[in-house]
Write a structure and sequence with these properties.
Shape of chain A: globular
Oligomer: homodimer
CATH class of the largest domain in chain A: Alpha Beta
Strand order of the largest sheet of chain A: 4-10-9-8-7-5-6
Largest interface: A-B, 112 and 112 residues
CATH topology of the largest domain in chain A: Aspartate Aminotransferase, domain 2
Helix content of chain A: 40-55%
CATH architecture of the largest domain in chain A: 3-Layer(aba) Sandwich
Radius of gyration of chain A: 25 Å
Strand content of chain A: 5-15%
Number of domains of chain A: 3
Largest sheet of chain A: 7 strands, mixed
Structural class of chain A: alpha/beta
Chain lengths: 472, 472
């Protein structure tokens, strides 16, 4: 979609748009039943007025090439292809709509889409800013890599032995004793959840998770028929799990350190209580620990360090700390579990990038990773304080928040329930992208997940002021 | 599983094995219900006699730590944990057995497992030999990469724009006109199939494929409830598709160039006939074209080059040609289809390795890839001729085959139906790993997929002689 109308052309802008749409239909890119982008989206992309787009669409409708369906949008008409070229054509839209996997929520699709646009200020992005990524050091480290032919073939089902060896040592510092057989390398923690969902749980299993929860913003468990039960944090420690425990298989998903989206961490005592309860109830724990390295002050080791019963599936990653582009994470679990998940990974994508694995092994084993983390924590802390100061100055009367203890996020709570989709869209129209609380807890209209990690300081300030202006 | 008994220890070998098994149970690695490897597997791994393993297992059974279940193997006993440490413990085996995704077939699990062992001669592996991989050139090219901070963050849903741009040009040479919006970067062709299965087909859709078929050796469609109908190659061109076409959605999977496992290619006329039939019947075509670059003599362009109706989902990859460790492939399709598949990929693994994408873009755009391919084809041709000469000398009386036209495989057909699981296991016991025909067509007991691409020339000769000896 990089095409734009040419203002020096002999054709008018709307004629050019008509031709462009026709050409997409002609070359079978937009097949019968394809839903067109909205007028606003097209206007934004072409950088023209909506009225110009409307003029073009009206002409195409009059020609019978596209048609409106009330309430659902504008589509390539059933006879369009016949009219243009007189040929039969597949209806891909029908295929898409009847297929198995759920689409992302619309708000999340919009987030994914707008995160690619340079002019958008991203106030909620769960990703390190380009300026925080160690790009030059990574480039340098590529020069130092020496490859073995065996290392760039298909990797063993569990992933590179070298990287697993390095991780064994690394995890020891976090109080986790493990061995080569107990580690599976994955392409990031999202894939870890996907593999667990299809490889360890029967359909209809219960997935307990904290409320609000990152799990609500993705589909890993929902799309394969699991039943989600979200429980507020404090109730998890009392009798909620016991009361809700079903006859069915169940599992608890949690982020005990720097929770996404709230930023909270459990104390060691709380972790112990949770572990003991789950052990007694025989509920396996999925411990998502991808933010741990970003604690401004180290607090307590992961739940996995307490695990004497093989009950905890531990997930780590370098996506939040080194580079998401590497797509490298890991699961630590009993070896039959790892064997099973490795078998499924082999059926899904035959393993993760050998090059990425090599880079991560090199960074961790050389100590470069730890050094980078120390700097990164400092930088994130500075950013957190900067945002907190802006909040202090301008948001004190309308919202509350907790001082960040690390990671990326401030869970900003507005006194009034104003964070709805309308606000999300209004902000987007002003080029500000937020992660609204309702993607983490559908009923929540009070929160925004602010991220101080992505946008530049200047953009953060500008975005927060736009937010303030639109709220008032 | 790298542990081996220490022959200089004060303990006997079998005592060491007993201790080792106990320690795995104690540290919750083998939880209750875990199935132990077979005696033979343990003996192989420990490099000891089976009788020693048996002695150890007998002792563990007598202690009540493990138990045999007739016909299904030896398992960690229900009370083992209590006996060792007196604690409750999760039964992971139960979780694994009741979960959603099918395990790989046993023969394929054995293949995956033994492909990791250096002493095994691999006669069927669908992978380039380490000596054919351009390891040093890849290492060199890493030194030349300059990274942009944006390039190592999360990539756009469809994958690196740079790589997609490079592919547009590259595919033009194959007669495929496409654009940025029509390409999705994936982590190899297996992932492409996975995404198509869950993103474009309704449950119970019919997947037509050639008989024998690579699809039978993987589970992408079967594991999500598709109905597989395999049709012999020649019948596909007559009325078989028409007769078998159901009311249900259906799709045709094919490898028109250097088919896996048979090595055959369709002529341009046959491709045209197939395309026209599918167009008339409105059956989308999945064209798996990952071996095309390995044709010894270029024949005809892909079916996709004929596609005027947006009917063909085209799959390419560098796994067979450059390095499987990169985990990079691509799908070319109409943009609504690509948008849909990209959305699902974002829900699965948030994109492929940015580093791998960068490397592939660099190799293709610099022309290095084409140069490498020219050399590679020469080397593969030499290997094919070498193997064909051995076959000519020793297999003429018992088998038939077709001279290879490219790629990796010779589809060796024995006059007698001797290629069963017993032969597979017997060969494995002699350290020779084959890909038996029955993993591509369950009823087939005549074929072996010979690969001249992986093992060294010497190993190929040795392996073929072992095969000959065991058959006779």
């Amino acid at each position: 979609m990089n095409w734009k109308p040419n203002r020096d052309s002999n054709l008018t802008i709307h004629e050019q748009i008509v031709d462009w749409v026709k050409s997409r239909i002609e070359r079978s890119d937009w097949t019968v039943g394809t839903k067109l982008p909205t007028q606003r989206q097209l206007a934004d992309r072409f950088n023209v007025n909506r009225s110009t787009v409307q003029l073009a669409l009206d002409e195409l409708k009059a020609d019978g090439l596209i048609e409106s369906k009330v309430g659902s949008g504008v589509f390539v008409a059933n006879n369009s292809w016949k009219m243009l070229l007189d040929k039969a054509q597949l209806n891909w839209q029908q295929h898409i709509e009847s297929s198995i996997h759920k689409p992302n929520y619309h708000t999340i699709q919009l987030i994914n889409e707008h995160e690619q646009m340079d002019h958008i200020i991203r106030l909620g992005t769960g990703e390190l800013s380009p300026e925080l990524l160690p790009t030059k050091q990574l480039e340098q480290s590529l020069k130092e890599i020496s490859l073995e032919p065996k290392a760039i073939g298909y990797s063993p089902p569990q992933g590179s032995e070298k990287l697993r060896g390095v991780l064994c040592k690394y995890l020891k510092n976090k109080g986790i004793e493990t061995s080569l057989d107990n580690i599976l390398i994955v392409s990031g923690s999202l894939q870890a959840l996907q593999l667990i969902a299809i490889g360890l749980l029967e359909e209809g299993s219960v997935v307990f998770h904290e409320q609000p929860s990152y799990l609500n913003s993705i589909h890993s468990f929902q799309s394969v028929g699991m039943r989600m039960i979200s429980i507020p944090r404090d109730s998890l420690l009392t009798d909620s799990l016991r009361e809700n425990k079903k006859k069915r298989q169940s599992v608890l998903y949690c982020i005990p350190t720097l929770h996404n989206p709230t930023g909270k961490s459990w104390s060691m005592k709380e972790k112990k209580t949770l572990y003991d309860t789950c052990k007694e109830l025989q509920i396996p724990i999925i411990e998502d620990d991808v933010y741990h390295e970003l604690l401004f002050e180290e607090t307590s080791p992961p739940i996995k360090s307490l695990d004497t019963s093989g009950q905890v599936l531990y997930i780590g990653s370098v996506s939040k700390t080194l580079s998401p582009g590497l797509r490298i994470g890991w699961i630590v679990a009993p070896s039959p579990v790892i064997g099973r998940l490795a078998d499924i990974k082999m059926q899904t994508d035959y393993g993760s990038s050998a090059f990425s694995q090599e880079i991560v092994a090199q960074w961790i084993s050389s100590g470069r990773y730890e050094m980078h983390l120390a700097t990164l924590r400092e930088q994130l802390k500075r950013r957190a304080e900067y945002v907190e100061e802006i909040l202090e100055q301008h948001f004190r009367k309308i919202a509350t928040w907790k001082k960040s203890e690390g990671g990326f996020y401030i869970w900003l709570r507005f006194h009034e329930p104003i964070v709805n989709k309308a606000l999300f869209l209004k902000l987007l129209h002003h080029n500000v992208l937020i992660n609204p609380g309702y993607i983490y807890e559908p009923k929540d209209l009070h929160h925004i997940r602010l991220s101080y990690a992505y946008a530049s300081m200047r953009a953060l300030e500008e975005g927060l002021h736009t937010l303030l202006k639109l709220i008032k």
